[in-house]
Amino acid sequence: MMTFTDWDIIRNLLLAGRWTLALSLVAFFGGTLTTIPLLLMRMSRFRSLQLLVRGYCGLFQGTPLLMQLFLAFFGVALFGIDVSPWAAASIALTLYTSAFLLDIWHGSILALPKGQWEASRCVGLSFTQTMLHVILPQALRIALAPTVGFAVQVIKGTALASIIGFVEITKAGSMLTNVTFEPFKVFGLVALGYFIVCYPLSRYSQYLEKKFDASHHH
Predict the structure, then answer these.
(1) How many CA atoms lie within 13 A of 76 on its CB side?
(2) What is the pLDDT of residue 212?
(3) CA distance 135 to 113
(4) Angle at Cα 85 formed by Cα 83 and Cα 89, nearest 5°?
């Protein structure tokens, strides 16, 4: 019988943890890149574009991430396209992330006083110039805390990718449990891994929120 030392368990979990972080980063950067054009569509004058983006948000926010992962992995296979668990997880999490980031960022833009748009128009700035130089720098400050807070949800969301066979820390945990028969120890370490990554981010998000509130009231 093969015996796994605690060190082996930790080493295997750390190796799998790299994939958890890699998938989180891909989802977040992919989500950011996807959100930017969606945000512009949401703010456009065309009603059809606004409705399209609203529908997109409703779809990805209103359905479980687990189902989105299943569809990205098994749904695409129905069309004869072979997709790896890594690609499926990246696509599903990117779309999921973008739907929530869009709401956070759009809300941050709406939170700014309407007078800023009018003042910019009076000075002769175009829509693009107003967005780049006046609106976005301020909206970013409002959006930072909830964006960092949402990053924690994305990291936790990567655990669901284990369902489609993507070996991140949760999947590695269940595989190690099958070998060691020590689920409490293995998943205790998995939980600790998530905590080490997520807790500082949560605290940072709270710190940003307090900082923004303080500067806002001065």
Answers:
(1) 16
(2) 85
(3) 10
(4) 105
Provide the residue-wise pLDDT of the chain in tens; the chain has 218 residues.
456 788 999 999 999 999 999 999 999 999 999 999 999 999 999 999 999 999 999 999 999 999 999 999 999 888 888 899 999 999 999 999 999 999 999 999 999 998 998 999 999 999 889 988 999 899 999 999 999 999 999 999 999 999 999 999 999 999 999 999 999 999 999 999 999 999 999 999 999 999 988 877 76
Give 145-150 contacts, CB < 8 A, sequence gap 24+.
Answer: 145/205, 145/206, 145/208, 145/209, 145/212, 146/104, 146/108, 146/205, 146/209, 147/101, 147/104, 147/105, 148/201, 148/204, 148/205, 148/208, 149/201, 149/202, 149/205, 150/97, 150/100, 150/101, 150/104
Cα–Cα separations (whole angstroms), residue 162 to 5, 66, 182: 24, 10, 19
Give phi and psi for 120, each to the nearest 5: -65, -40
CB 175 within 8 A of CB 167: yes
Angle subtended at Cα 101 by Cα 95 and Cα 105, rounded to the nearest 5 degrees: 145
Whose CA is closest to 22, among 174, 190, 168?
168
Closest CA to 202 of 146, 161, 119: 146
Give the span between the Cα atoms of 74 and 212, in whole angstroms. 43
Name, in order, each residue with C-beta under 8 angstroms of 127's C-beta and a sequence gap of 6 or more: none
SS3 25: helix
